[in-house]
Every structure is written in C-alpha cells, then in structure tokens.
Design goal:
heterotrimer; A mainly alpha (about 400); B mainly alpha (about 450); C alpha/beta (about 250); A: about 400 residues; mainly alpha; 2 domains; two-stranded antiparallel sheet; 14 helices; B: about 450 residues; MetI-like fold; three-stranded antiparallel beta sheet; two-stranded antiparallel ribbon; 19 helices; 5 strands
Chain lengths: ~400, ~450, ~250
C-alpha cells in the first residue's frame, strides 16, 4: 500500500468517523433525556481529528524514515498509519457519552495543530542551516577552507583544478552594496525627513504611495531596467567618454539600480523612526528659537540615530543578498578592482551560476555554491540580528 | 537696548538660507525617487508595449497531396510523419506564387524570400492540416507570423540601415514586405499569442509567448495560497493568542523577524537541497516552486496577521469569554472574523511578493525551456509536478537570449507581471479601505 | 510703567474651534505674571501665541495684535526664529535633548551665535546653570547625558537652556506639574530670582503656586480672559463671580 493511497484511506476514515459520531450522538439524544456535555458537532470533529492527526503524522514519519534509511517502500508505514487512524477514530467514537467533554478534546487537538504551524518557522531556519551546512562540509572536504576564504582568485573549471576564492566575489558584493547605500541612504533619509517634517498633507498623500510603489516592484524588473536602460546609459555617457570602460554591466549600474530599489526601504523605516521622536523634543528646540532644519539636524536626527543606523544595516543586508539586479546588471567576471565602471560579480551571482545548468553534486564547483550561500546567510543574519536588536532597543526608549 | 524684531539680522538671514537649502535637499530627494520611478516605468513600457502587437502576413497556401500525404488515404499517423521541413517547402512555393500573382519582383533568392516568414509558420500550417486532413488538396488562406526582423521593422526596431548590416534580413526583404503590405497582405494587430503561446526557441522570438509561464505562476500561487494562508494564520493565532511568554516563543519571534530578512536566494538553496535533492520532488515543478515561495511568504503573512489580530481590542475577547465561550471559541468566532480583512490584505501582499520573486526559482530549475503546458495533475508527476516555468523567470530567461527581439518580449512579460501585481495590490487597497475599522 | 508684552483683541482658532476669545492683556517687565484657570480654558494656548509656537500647528490661526516692546510679533517681517530667541519657553514636561548637559545648555547660544569662542561659551553655560541653581549639582558631570538627571534637575536644566539663549521674556507652561514637591519648591524659588532679569509668564493649574510666585494673575475661563489684576487682589477680592467660584474651588 503506498503512502498516497494511505492518505485517501485516512480521509475516508475521517469522513466515516464524522458521520458515525453524528449518528451516535443522535441516538444518545433520543435514548436519554440527559443534556450532553458538548455540541454534536464537537463530538464529530473530535472523532475526525483523533484519527486524522495521528494518521497523517505516521505517514510523514514513515516517509522521512524511508528517505533516511534508503529502504524500499514496503507498505508497512502506510499500514501503520491507517491502523493508527482507525484506532484513534474508534476510541473517539467509543467515548461519546453524555458526560464526555468533547470540546476540550477538540480544542487541545486544534492547539496541537497551531503549535505545529508555528514551529514551521523554526523548521525553516533549521532546514536552511542544515541544507547548507551539510553540502558545505562536503565542499570543504574537497577544497581547503583557507583557499576558499583567503584566495583572491575565482576561476571555476569543471574539468578540475578550479580556483574558488571568495574574496573577489565578496569585494564585488560589498562594492555594489556600498554604492547602493551611498545613493539610497541620503535620498531615502531626506525623502523621509521632508515627508515627515515639511510636506503638506496633500503632498504626503501622493508622494508616500508613489515612493512605496518602488518597494512593490519585483527585483527582476529592476534587473531588466539595469540591463536595457541604466547600463547602456552609464556606458555611453560616463564610462566610455571618461575612458573608464566599455562594459554596460558594471558595479555602478548594479549599485545605482539597487540604490533605487532601496530608497523606499530606507525612507519608510526612517519615517517610522523619525516619527517616534517625541514632539516635546522638537518643541524644546523650537522654543529656543531653532529653525526647523537645525531642530532636525541637531535634535531629531541625533535622537533617531540608533534607529536610523539599524535601518541602514537592514538595507545593507538587503543589498548584500540581492540577486536579480546583480545577475543582470553587474556582470559575471570575478575581479578585484576599484573602477566602478568595470563589470564585477557577487556572491549571489555565483550561487546562481554554479547551481543552474548542468550540476554535479559531487564536484567542488557545484558544492562551492552552498559554501557561498552559507557565508551569505551568516553575514546577512549577523546584520539582521544586530539591526533588529538596535531598532527594538530604540523603540523601547521612546515607549 | 535690544534688536528690533522687525529687521532680520544677518545671522538669522544666513540661518534661514540654510533652512531653505535643507528643505531643497528634501524636495530634491523626493524628486529623485519619483524620477527614478518614472524612468523605470517609461523604460519598461517603451521597450515592452510593442510585444503586444505582432506582424502577420496572409498567404494563400496550396496544400498539394503529393507532398503532404503521399498515400492519399489521410491516415493521421502517416501524415504526422511529414515534418515541418516539408511544410516549409510548401510554404515557400506558396509565397513565391503569391509574389508572382501580385506582380512583385525581387532580386532576393527564393531562400531569402522565405525568410520573411517566421520559422514558426511551417509548424502553424502543419498543425492546421493535421487537425483537419480534409484541407489537403485545397488552397487555404492563412495568416502567418512574419519573422522577427520584419516584425521589428514595423515596430521601428529594424531600419533599412540596420538591415543592410544584418545577416538575417536585408533592405530588399523589407522592401518586398512593404510591397506586400501595400497590397494588403501584411497586418500588425494585437498579439493574443503572446499571452497564451508557450515559449519558443532562440531562432523565433516572434512566436515566443507567456502561456506556460502564466500557468506555472498560477499553479504556484495556488500552492502558496493553500499552504501559506492556513499555516500563517494558525501560527499567528498561536503566537498572538495562546503562546505562553517563554524562551521558546521568544525564539520563534526572533526567528520569524529574521526569516523575513533572509535573502531570497537562500530559500532557493533550501528548496534545492531539501525539496529536490532530499525529498526528491520533481525539478522545475510548480509544486517545489510553490513550497519554496510558501516558506518565503510565511513570515510576511505571519507578521501582518499578527498585526491584524493585535488591532482587535481585548474588550471583544473579554465579551466573548464573559458569555461563557472558551478561549478557542472567542478567537475563532470573534477575533478572527474581525481580523479577516487585515489578514486577507497581508496575504494578498505576500502573494504579490511571491509572484514577482525570481532568484530562488532559478535554483530549483524553473529556468528550463518548457514548451508543454503543465497539467495540474498527472499520475506520474503528481499534483503540480510537471515541469513548468514562471513569469519572472521567463523574463530572466529571455534576457539571456541573443536576439534583440527578446528584449521586447522580456519587457512585455514584465508589463504583464506588473499588471497582475497592480491588480492584486488594488484588491488589497480596496479591502483595506472598505473594511478598515478604527476602534 | 510701560508694558513689555501687550495683547489686543487676540483670537485663536483651531480649525473651527474658537479657542481664545478676544483677549486683551498687558504684561509688565521684571514681573511674574501667572495665567490660571481650569484645564482647557486656553491659558496654554494663549501662552504659546506669545512666542508663536502655535505656528508649528497647521490648523491653528491667530488674529489680533500682540506686541513685544511695541513691535507686532505677527508682522510678516518678523522671523519667528528671532522672536523665540527673545521669548524663551519652558515646557510642562522636562524635555532635555538626548545630549550631554553641557550641549543642552550650549545648544541655544550655538545656534544664535552668542559666543565668540569656546571660553565665552563655557562662561554662558556656567552662568545659565548657576542662575538655574543647577551648577553645583552638574558641574562635575557636564558631559553626562541630560536625560540621566532627576525630574527636577531636568526641568532646571531646561530652564538653564532657555536662560542661556539670553531671552527677555520667559514663558513657562506648567513647569512644575511633572515634579515632586521638593523639586517644585526649588523651581519656584528660581522663578522668583529670574524676575530680576526677565519678565516671566507662567501658566499653572495650581492657585497656590500662582499666589506664591506671581505679582499679576490672569484668570482664563472657556477661552475668555475673565479677570486680570494684581495677584493679591485676585486671590483676596476678585471682581468677577466666576473668578471667585474658581478660587474657592467651586469650578475647575
């Protein structure tokens, strides 16, 4: 019996349980004038859940067990699952008496389901870490970690003898993120300041949603924008005339476009943070005869600084993990250079290129993607945890 | 004694000037942001709107029996053995015959004349014939795709000057089409096939469509909706209403906040390692794509659902408990229905995010070239198990092709994607406006 | 004696709400004037018209004539920034900036360019802190954050901050309402000393406080200035029956 079939059988058992529970309750009501301790529906739901939840759990368990042991499916797991489901339903049916408080049991089943649902968040993190750690270990068994972390050369070669140093990729990632932030932070911050301190009601009503549209645009759209518009524009009007390069994909292209993507991110976070600064602080400054900009620069911004730093760190983590813009805008050449008009590549680009197309999960050239992914995950996680901590601390300060 | 208030002193004037400058920076920042949005949209629209138009050439095609069905018995199996190469020849003869009938002469070789039609044209005629074998022996009038370069000529992408340098077309070919057009055989009209047809190979951008990608995206949205919504709501209800304040729930909270900020490509690695390599689900399938996007969307849905639950005032819960409802009943009968609009809005925004996501799907193989419409269920592949692609991935795929006509296709695909997103966000905004409640 | 501040027919509107109705008042130099009245009577609103703090509220509209030293402060030529340097303000809740004690006090002199060099600035800060009776407590920790002081100290810091800007008028909006009795006594003592250098206008909901610190008292009720006279007269022999009921605790 296959597991799929078992699922169908368990569903049938559940429906049978529902119907027979209702019949039994009806009989009880006819037989005895006594009031039941629960609604008929609650008895029925209890009968369904008592069989369904254990049955499905056994199915999941045996599927996992099969996968880990590598044994051929024998039908034993499916049989067990059906047996458990049937048993659970029968027990629930047998317990239908006027005193049985079915609601309490239903609610504890539901609570179990709720707990399982909220554990999925944890499972996801565990899954992310495990999936990358296992393959990274495989990678480091074939390729030295010093070579990976400290080598400045990246030239994968599927015939072997690859140089897989992360440094040029990290450099590209950080350089592009830096340019993105250099553009996004002033623009986003000033936009937030203007919107929260200066703009009229009417202006805020249209400007805020318009800027937020930028946040809803998928990154592939930014990627295409970089590829067909910004790249050629920068090449033809800046790089080529200044003799800095002939490439449309460049650090500058990817950085600028990523900067546009980050504007709404920075501005909406800063907006929240600036608004959290108490009005009393502003009044104190105005009362001393400070102008609005003096108040903002010398009172509001210093007060909001920790929060804004947190927002910038979150934006940096976004930039570092961004993929499609750099895939389409930055180029594929791993290079350590200072010229922003040259094509460079990033960690994310290489994850994509090593894991698409023909992949061989025994070769270090493929496995390196997992080590890259793990590095990326650790860096962004560090930034996120730190930033969220700062932002939370900051909020508490003014609550 | 004191300075008069009526005269602005030099220092104040200077400070006011700096105030003006500061304000100017703020205004400039907003201007830059709005300008960026306008440039982005203009760039995509100008590049992509033409994808919704397509140039067709109408031809009277004679379908000779001796070439297309030698046996003459209209046996479908035998007829299916006749390849598109044979049909291409038939088509070339028909085209030459038409030129002769119209009195158009050209210096082009016969082979180059045939190039004004798309490589897809022969397949179009073939499938028409296979669908209706009785057509053999007759002459049918059929509308066929013009080649990408001819199409580009009518959209302004190809000019006489560029054609002169182009190996795939020539100024003579363009003039030839112009003459056909003067006689009413060429037409540019709305391109439904762009939305319904499957992808086409590198050689025929004019035939490439979004059908498979839209279907694949739709399947994934189903998977995400049916997994992420219940799981997200269940998790939020537990965390917001039932969870005791302890280390475990603290860990879950921090976890969710962090998951929302994990780079999307990491979810792709997770999908590849867990769903494909470990659980051995089908590569490129909407099921795996949907699962990955579900995990990605969950934090968004949980965060917005919890905000919605939080906004329901405690007095509602107290009222329900006060009439003897259990905690569970108060939540499911009263709190959840009141929070529903907020939850729905958050879910739609989460779905919109998932619909536009590209990077993780690349890693689970959805970038493959797929020409077959995936079935929702087959006994071999299971539910949503057939290879497919997705809208944003199709965009990426087209940007990697050599023919510049694919840039138009990619931009057109983005317009389609943006229309879907606009629609979803409009629903979310409507729901928020319509049902928003202030306590 | 000429008055420092002279208000004629002042009306204040918040949107459609007529918050201050036709107020006329003359405030003398080197005196403490107290505004009393039940909450919501408009006394704080009126106080805020004197240094145009109401400008920061979009829907607020002021008509009438307010003159300081004979100059109309609502004249379009008047820069509110300059006005507020001349008319300092202390708020209900102590609101030190998230900076050091020194920087809190130095903030005003810096933005108004009152000090030529660091030494002059140090002197201004020291004088202000001395006048605010905070010097002895704060002199050893000028670099500590102002938010780390106790409530009463914070309020005296805010007073020092206002003094440092060298204003001619000091507006105080219920400066003691967030303070304990001991801190209140200290601040009240301070107010009496400040009278030597400034004209002080204080809003208070405590009649005892008004009686203790002020020379003139104005009683506001529902946006009207009901009575304005010497403090002694108001508290012993009010003319208006509404003032009388408020003083004796029947309304308010």
């Amino acid at each position: 019996m296959s597991l799929t079939l078992a699922i169908f059988v368990i569903c049938t058992i559940a429906i049978t349980g529902w119907v027979s529970a209702l019949i039994r309750v009806r009989k009880l009501q006819h037989l005895q004038a006594a009031r039941l301790a629960a609604l008929p529906k609650q008895y029925a739901v209890n009968a369904v859940l008592s069989g369904f939840i254990p049955g499905i759990s056994v199915i999941l368990g045996s599927a996992l067990a099969l996968r880990f042991s590598g044994a051929a499916p024998s039908g034993f797991g499916a049989f067990c699952a059906v047996a458990v489901a049937a048993l659970g339903t029968v027990v629930a049916l047998a317990r239908i008496t006027p005193d049985f408080r079915a609601r309490v049991h239903v609610e504890s089943w539901i609570k179990t389901l709720l707990i399982i649902a909220s554990s999925i968040a944890i499972l996801t993190t565990v899954g992310i870490v495990l999936s990358m750690v296992f393959e990274s270990v495989n990678f480091f068994q074939q390729y030295g970690w010093t070579g990976f972390f400290f080598s400045a050369e990246w030239s994968p070669n599927f015939r072997g003898n690859s140089a897989l140093g992360i440094l040029p990729l990290l450099w590209g990632t950080l350089y592009i993120s830096f340019i993105a932030l250099l553009f996004a932070v002033p623009v986003g911050l000033f936009a937030a300041i203007y919107l929260s301190e200066y703009a009229s009601h009417r202006m805020r009503a249209w400007a805020k949603p318009v800027i937020e549209i930028l946040a809803g645009v998928p990154t592939i759209v930014y990627g295409l924008f970089a590829l067909i518009t910004v790249g050629p524009l920068l090449r033809d009007y800046f790089a080529a005339p200044m003799g800095l390069g002939q490439s449309a994909s460049s650090v500058m292209t990817a950085g600028l476009v990523m900067g546009i993507m980050l504007i709404p991110f920075v501005s909406s976070l800063s907006d929240d943070i600036i608004n959290a600064v108490p009005q009393a602080m502003r009044d104190g400054s105005y009362g001393l005869g400070a102008t609005q900009s003096e108040t903002i620069r010398q009172v509001v911004l210093p007060a909001a600084l920790p929060g804004i730093v947190g927002a910038i760190l979150l934006a940096a983590s976004r930039a570092i993990g961004e993929t499609m813009i750099v895939v389409l805008g930055a180029g594929a050449a791993a290079r350590l250079s200072l010229n922003p008009f040259e094509a460079m590549t990033t960690v994310t680009v290489k994850i994509v290129s090593q894991l698409t197309g023909d992949t061989d999960f025994a070769a270090p050239e493929t496995l390196v993607a997992f080590a890259l992914g793990l590095t990326l995950f650790v860096i962004t996680l560090g930034l996120n945890v730190f930033a969220l901590y700062i932002v939370r601390k900051y909020r508490e300060q003014y609550e | 004694m004191t300075r008069s208030l009526l005269n602005v002193d030099a220092r104040t004037a200077k400070r006011n000037a700096s105030e003006k400058r500061f304000r100017g920076y703020g205004l400039a920042a907003i201007f830059v942001a709005v300008l960026a949005l306008i440039m982005l949209m203009t760039s995509i629209l100008t590049a992509g709107l033409s994808a919704f138009q397509q140039t067709y050439i109408t031809i009277d095609v004679a379908l000779p029996e001796d070439q297309l069905d030698k046996s003459g018995v209209r046996d479908p199996a035998a007829m299916a053995k006749v390849t598109t190469i044979r049909y291409a020849k038939v088509l070339k003869q028909a085209l030459l015959a038409q030129l002769e009938a119209e009195g158009i002469t050209t210096t082009l070789s016969d082979k180059d004349v045939a190039k004004i039609l798309s490589k897809e044209a022969a397949a179009t005629v073939r499938s028409r014939v296979l669908a209706n074998p009785d057509l053999i022996g007759t002459t049918i009038r059929i509308e066929l795709l013009a080649s990408g370069r001819i199409d580009g000529f009518y959209k302004g992408r190809v000019t006489m000057a560029s054609a002169a340098l182009d190996g795939n077309t020539s100024p003579e070919a363009l003039q030839l089409v112009e003459q056909l057009a003067e006689r009413g055989w060429v037409e540019t009209k709305f391109n439904w096939a762009f939305l319904t047809a499957p992808d086409a190979s590198d050689q025929r951008p004019e035939a490439a469509g979004l059908g498979v990608a839209i279907l694949g995206s739709l399947y994934m949205m189903f998977v995400v909706l049916f997994l992420a919504l219940p799981i997200g709501v269940a998790a939020s209800v537990y965390l917001e209403e039932f969870a005791p304040k302890n280390r475990w729930t603290d860990i879950i909270e921090v976890n969710i906040a962090n998951l929302a900020a994990v780079p999307s490509i990491v979810y792709g690695i997770l999908g590849l390692a867990i769903f494909i390599n470990f659980a051995q689900l089908n590569q490129s399938s909407p099921l795996v794509g949907g699962l990955v996007l579900t995990l990605m969307t969950l934090p968004t849905i949980i965060i917005s659902t919890r905000a919605a639950l939080k906004s329901v005032p405690p007095s509602i819960r107290d009222a329900a408990l006060g009439v003897g409802a259990s905690k569970m009943q108060s939540v499911f009968h009263h709190v959840l229905p009141l929070a529903a609009p907020g939850i729905l809005t958050g879910t739609i925004i989460g779905l919109a995010q998932a619909l536009g996501e590209t990077a993780p799907l690349l890693l689970i193989g959805m970038v493959a070239f797929v020409r077959e419409y995936p079935a929702a269920y087959t006994s071999d592949a299971g539910l949503f198990g057939e290879a497919s692609t997705a809208l944003p991935v199709q965009v990426f795929n087209w940007t990697q092709r050599a023919d510049p006509a694919f840039v138009e296709r990619a931009s057109g695909a983005i317009i389609t994607l943006l229309v879907f997103l606009l629609f979803m966000n409009a629903i979310a905004i409507y729901l928020r406006r319509r049902f928003e409640r202030r306590w | 004696m000429t008055s420092k501040i002279s208000a004629q027919n002042v009306q204040v509107f918040y949107g459609d709400n007529h918050a201050i109705k036709d107020v006329n008042v003359e405030i003398a130099d080197h005196e403490v004037t107290a505004f009393i009245g039940p909450s919501g009577c408009g006394k704080s609103t009126f106080l805020r018209t004197i240094n145009r703090m109401n400008d920061t509220i979009d829907i607020c509209r002021v008509t009438g004539d307010i003159r300081i030293d004979g100059e109309d402060i609502y004249d379009p030529k008047v820069d509110p920034v300059q006005l507020r340097a001349k008319v300092g303000m202390v708020f209900q809740k102590p609101n030190p900036f998230p900076k050091s004690i020194y920087d809190n006090v130095a903030y005003g002199p810096k933005i108004h360019g009152l000090a030529q060099d660091k030494a002059a600035l140090d002197e201004i800060v020291e004088n202000a802190l001395r006048k605010a009776a905070l010097w002895n407590e704060a002199k050893d920790r000028l670099d500590a954050p102002g938010t780390g002081l106790s409530g009463g100290q914070q309020q005296r810091l805010c007073i020092a901050r206002a003094i440092a800007t060298a204003p001619e008028v000091l507006l105080m909006d219920e400066p003691c309402s967030a303070l304990d009795p001991i801190a209140t006594a200290q601040v009240e003592e301070l107010i009496d000393e400040l009278r030597q250098s400034f004209s002080v206008v204080i809003v208070t909901h405590s009649m005892q406080q008004a009686a203790r610190v002020s020379q003139k008292t104005a009683f506001f009720h529902l946006g009207n200035l009901v009575e304005f006279d010497d403090t002694d007269k108001i508290f012993t022999n009010p003319e208006d029956p509404r003032t009388e009921s408020y003083i004796s605790g029947r309304i308010g």
